[in-house]
Write a structure and sequence with these properties.
single chain, 7 helices, about 0% strand
């Protein structure tokens, strides 16, 4: 499990870093072409728009895997350690349902609908843009499964390790 998590982390993190690098280069070219050459590139805006969509979706999936997704920690601080783990399990279940229903099922419907459309400038099939939804949903499902397995083994991203050791006696 730990090896799979490392491979997934390196793959998704590497994709996000590579995509960010491409977006920075494209943005720099857009600025140079617009202000220095006085001939704005029409391609860069679409590349940036679709690149940001893909990076956001992959970054959200990566955040789920790292346990650094948006959360409200106030409730967690009021709970006992045992209930903190139960809350963690509920969060994993919520991400599983969201990824399966909204991102994968709904995303595939969006891909089907957009299959007949192309982007204005690049003439790319819009289904490639919408494909970011089910891809990120699949990655979130993988991470949710790994997080659930960690919880079953008594490991958590949010409950400190020293608190985890005290759980059985509670």
């Amino acid at each position: 499990m730990d090896r799979l998590r490392r491979i997934l982390d390196l793959t998704v993190g590497g994709l996000c870093c590579g995509l960010l690098l491409v977006l920075v280069v494209v943005l720099a070219w857009q600025v140079v072409s617009r202000y220095a050459l006085n001939a704005p590139s029409s391609v860069t805006e679409e590349v940036l728009r679709y690149g940001v969509i893909w990076m956001s979706m992959l970054g959200a999936a990566y955040a789920v895997g790292q346990g650094s997704h948006l959360s409200i920690d106030m409730l967690r601080g009021w709970l006992s350690r045992r209930w903190q783990l139960r809350l963690e399990g509920l969060i994993v279940l919520a991400f599983t349902l969201f990824a399966a229903v909204v991102l994968i099922w709904g995303g595939m419907r969006g891909v089907e609908i957009a299959a007949r459309q192309t982007s204005a400038v690049l003439r790319l099939p819009m289904s490639w843009v919408y494909l970011s939804l089910p891809v990120s949903g699949g990655v979130m499902l993988l991470y949710a499964g790994l997080n659930a397995a960690d919880l079953m083994r008594g490991r958590s991203h949010h409950v400190p390790a020293e608190d985890m050791a005290e759980l059985p006696g509670e």
